[in-house]
Design goal:
The chain is α/β, with parallel strands linked by helices. The protein has helices at residues 19-29, 48-53, 69-83, 108-139, 174-194, 222-235, and strands at 10-13, 37-42, 59-63, 90-93, 151-155, 200-205, 244-246. Helix 6 links the parallel strand 6 (200-205) and strand 7.
Length: 254
């Protein structure tokens, strides 16, 4: 899938309030064949920042708080009304939050708040959209597993890799590291459970550690990160189910 880019019928992207979410949204719209339906979930009730960027017909602004099951249910209904029996091809769980902390200053409040958004949010969103993802997998049943058919992409972080334990001196952020390590386990669980339905599940580190910790470690720009992630998504297949990748297309250890 070289220059053709990522070709996908419908995408739901959470965490579109800024940063990577907004970047991925723009990147999806700029693909050679952009999705017919893009559902951008954001917390800003008016979606003002989104409206400025994406005044285009295939984008439906769906307002979803991934920590609130009722908000997710409402988003599912909106998506279902638009996509019908074609289902939802791609769910990108990008909602995330962090609190700066060290081991000495970490609190139960931080831990629980960050885990609720970063780990429970993607769990609830994946559970709720499963029927629509299954429909998409069946509708495209003759195709191999891919993001074009049916996939859940969890936006994770190398800071959640237990083996790499990167950048400990620069940022301990225990709550964030633990939530992303747990998100990676969730990716594995989703892959084990949903793989037989033709749904691909992968964790992706967008490398967007701001600022980059040392030369050559993270992408120089948000654009570079987005380009890399979308290129990776275009190439994922069944052999990648339940694995962890970075924006450069390199496999990461759990």
């Amino acid at each position: 899938a070289g220059m053709e880019g990522l070709s996908v019928g419908s995408v739901l992207l959470t965490g579109c309030d800024g940063g990577l979410g907004l970047g991925l949204l723009k990147g999806l719209l700029e693909q050679p064949s952009p999705p017919r339906h893009i559902f951008a979930a954001c917390l800003d009730p008016q979606g003002k920042r989104l409206a400025r960027i994406v005044a285009c017909p295939q984008t439906l602004l769906s307002l979803a708080d991934v920590t609130d099951p009722n908000s997710i249910k409402a988003a599912v209904r909106k998506v279902q009304a638009e996509v019908g029996s074609a289902g939802l091809n791609l769910l990108i769980n990008n909602s995330g939050t962090t609190r700066r902390s060290t081991l000495a200053t970490e609190t139960a409040e931080n831990m629980s708040l960050v885990y609720t958004t970063n780990t429970i949010g993607p769990l609830q969103t994946s559970q709720a959209f499963l029927p629509l993802l299954k429909e998409a997998a069946e509708a495209e049943g003759q195709r191999e597993m891919s993001c074009s058919r049916a996939a859940i992409i969890n936006i994770s972080s190398i800071l959640g890799s237990i083996e790499v334990a990167e950048a400990w001196q620069e940022r301990q952020d225990i709550c964030y590291r633990c939530s992303k390590a747990a998100l990676n386990m969730l990716t594995k669980c989703l892959a084990l459970e949903y793989g037989s339905s033709g749904i691909l599940c992968v964790s992706v580190d967008p490398g967007h550690v701001t600022p980059p910790l040392e030369q050559g470690m993270g992408p120089v720009t948000l654009e570079e990160s987005v380009r890399g992630v979308l290129q990776l998504l275009a190439q994922l297949s069944a052999t990648n189910n339940g694995t962890f990748w970075d924006w450069r297309g390199q496999r990461l250890p759990w």
